[in-house]
Amino acid sequence: MGLLLQPEENAYSHDNASAMTSQRCLAGGRRLVGALASFFRITDRTFVFSLATTSILASKCLHIYIHSQVLSLGELIQWLPSLFVQDTVIILFLRFLLDGKALGRFGGGWFRFLATAFSTIVALLQLSLAVSNISFFLMIGGEPRWRNAGLVADSNTWAIMLTGLWAFVSANAGLIFGSMLLKSPLFFFAGLALDVVKAASGIVLSKICICRRSRSEIEYAPLGKEEYYDDVESSYPDSPGATAPASRRDPKLRMLYMGTAVFLFLQLLTSILQPAEQAYIFLSWTALAMPIVDYLRGSDSPLTNIIPVYEKSMDQKWDVPFTLGQPTHWDWLPNQGSAPAGFDDWYGDDKQHYDRRLDPLSHPNYDKDLLDSLKGKLSDVSIRNVMLIFLESTRKDVFPFKKGDYIYNKMAATWDDKRLPEEAEKRAETLTPNARWLTGDYSDGFDHQETPRRGGINVNKNTPSATYTLKSLTGGLCGINPLVADMNREWNYHIYQPCLPQIFKVLNNLNNVSATDGFTNRPFNNSFMMSVTGQYDHQYELMKGLGYLEDEMVDSEYLHSDKAVFGNITVEDVRYDGMPEPAIEQYFRDAFRTSRENDTRLFLTHLTSSTHFPYGLPGDEVYVPMVQDDANNHLQDISKHLNAVGYVDRWVGHLLDIVEEEGATNDTLIVLVGDHGVPVIEMGGASPWGVPSMGSFHVPLVLSHPHLPVIDINDLAEDRRWYFTSVSPGGQTISTRSMDSPRWRLLVPLIQDAEWYFSDLETDPHEETQVASFDFVGMLRAVEKKHGVDAAKWAEEAAFATRWWVTDNHQRWRYI
């Protein structure tokens, strides 16, 4: 019998379990709904609305502030209401959704719940956009380009973002706290505006006979203040009566309605009359639309639509062939086997290669006489080894650092007596002794008992090929212009010239050298060293494309791996991307020792890192504040950056000591070059990303050898009449200058919604009063008005030269 009853018991148990499961699901659903309801009660509708409104207005005000240069003060005041129309529409729509009584006719509690939920989602989205905009501005000094949002997918970017955590937290806290303070007045005044819109809409509808009641049957009376809050406690007194005319109920309320109506009318009128110019269109976009606009409009280049104003034949003048031709044959290239890396263009009948002879911008000087100071001085210069040091984020005006210069004066101004205190003054005096020794520049405002100089060529007006490190590396190692495209895309396209590591490897295989040539017939060893990550933005792939093999690379990942020759390193990271420079010391010393013992030559490239934000230094380093403690974050960053500059200067001196200890001083050419500068001094930005400040475009260049005379080059270090620098991230703006008019600079936008900038570096070296415009013709007219017709004509030709060069650049890189 028990066996017969068992199935029924099992069935009962199964049904019971199913019922219990259903009950749990229902209970879970109730808890979820209850949690959401509790959330919406805690964050009441006035707060949700205030959070959205505060975020919207903060984003728009920042948006206008960043691009305010494109409008005069008069234009900005005249059309300011029209710039907020989109924001007003969104704000009033959210106010309508959060007005419980207004929504009553559409449904019950669930409809209100859905409206509140939707509004909350919009508010959180607006908060996210506002926090992103504010954080980016606090860190960089500019505005994010949403077309580069894919960078977030790179795990190395997460570490970079953590360095801006303080800005993220500050922006969130400020917006949330401000929303809490302003929630009642914002909700109230938006209610006034919504009432005005309702009344105006009713009048319009009645006029076109949509509303069939006679005008006398329609009464538009303002609602009582308590109705705006809709069961939320009001900080305003109740109005006398909901049905009495506003003039009899509350004269102050009537004035508020009239003022609101006038403001909304001005917004409508100015938006209708607003000039159809790019500046107004761009400044009018609300934050919620900016990511979409950036994606949809980012690929359209304004260069395609420029027309000449002064020289009507400018189009024909720059309608010249591009620079690709048949490569020149070199007898020393191997005739058999596959093409050496970097020399593919020389193998194959159909290959084309960049030909300087076809380049209308080329202005070479190799056919001119040697500098007088170098004549007869080169025969004793022995160059067995070449050490190329890229100085990360290093400006020329800190190499060496100078008293009384722009940076020094900015720091001194933060102190009460407008002077650096003794400790800071001492640090400033001893900040860059090795830079002085290498450049031979002791005109720095400090007293010097001795002025030792190592010897070499110091270029005072050097400009980088790009303000993005990986692009600058490509330009420096290959002698080319980086690809005009955002981020490191060079690795995936045709690097159109062989790079130094590749050239040295081809030279290693030459057979036509004699035994009497000394070390010149010895092979080169290539090495690239840095103490930080090599994984950011496809750097591994790029270094391979530049000619470095895996075993020729030393970086943070290698140093922490089992492959490390000297074992897994134990040096602590000081920044998000790796360790301080001394982590590679053993490998640096070993490279010179191995070269000496094996009778080989050495080409060693080193990228420093400590001068990159956030300027992390080892714990045993003494930090000396160069600005007063209560100075703002931007000035504190200047102090941190300069301490890092001093640290790297001491590191460079230590490297020179190692070269001396390894007996290589007299036959090693040391080249030091800045990859780019930083706009921290002028703009407060920690990076040149999207910030074309001149502080990012003036970098040191030194060719140092103890047997070279001390030479200063004060002309522009270029071999082209026009020369161009890609502004980080590389495909959005080009900086254009010329040899014949070096005082002028034009920033050329390559994407929509980016400005044209013109500056006169003689009268405004820190570009505090640039001419800015979204319109090419408008920019030319503004330049003519401020700087004269010659400057405007120069800017016109600079734009056409840049257009030709960008297209030619894409041809060379086969980026088509």
Automatic annotation (TrEMBL):
<keyword id="KW-0812">Transmembrane</keyword>
<dbReference type="InterPro" id="IPR017850">
    <property type="entry name" value="Alkaline_phosphatase_core_sf"/>
</dbReference>
<comment type="similarity">
    <text>Belongs to the sulfatase family.</text>
</comment>
<feature type="transmembrane region" description="Helical">
    <location>
        <begin position="47"/>
        <end position="66"/>
    </location>
</feature>
<keyword id="KW-1133">Transmembrane helix</keyword>
<feature type="transmembrane region" description="Helical">
    <location>
        <begin position="158"/>
        <end position="182"/>
    </location>
</feature>
<feature type="transmembrane region" description="Helical">
    <location>
        <begin position="255"/>
        <end position="273"/>
    </location>
</feature>
<dbReference type="Pfam" id="PF00884">
    <property type="entry name" value="Sulfatase"/>
</dbReference>
<keyword id="KW-0472">Membrane</keyword>
<dbReference type="InterPro" id="IPR050738">
    <property type="entry name" value="Sulfatase"/>
</dbReference>
<dbReference type="InterPro" id="IPR000917">
    <property type="entry name" value="Sulfatase_N"/>
</dbReference>
<feature type="domain" description="Sulfatase N-terminal">
    <location>
        <begin position="454"/>
        <end position="707"/>
    </location>
</feature>
<feature type="transmembrane region" description="Helical">
    <location>
        <begin position="110"/>
        <end position="138"/>
    </location>
</feature>
<feature type="transmembrane region" description="Helical">
    <location>
        <begin position="78"/>
        <end position="98"/>
    </location>
</feature>
<dbReference type="GO" id="GO:0004065">
    <property type="term" value="F:arylsulfatase activity"/>
</dbReference>
<protein>
    <recommendedName>
        <fullName>Sulfatase N-terminal domain-containing protein</fullName>
    </recommendedName>
</protein>
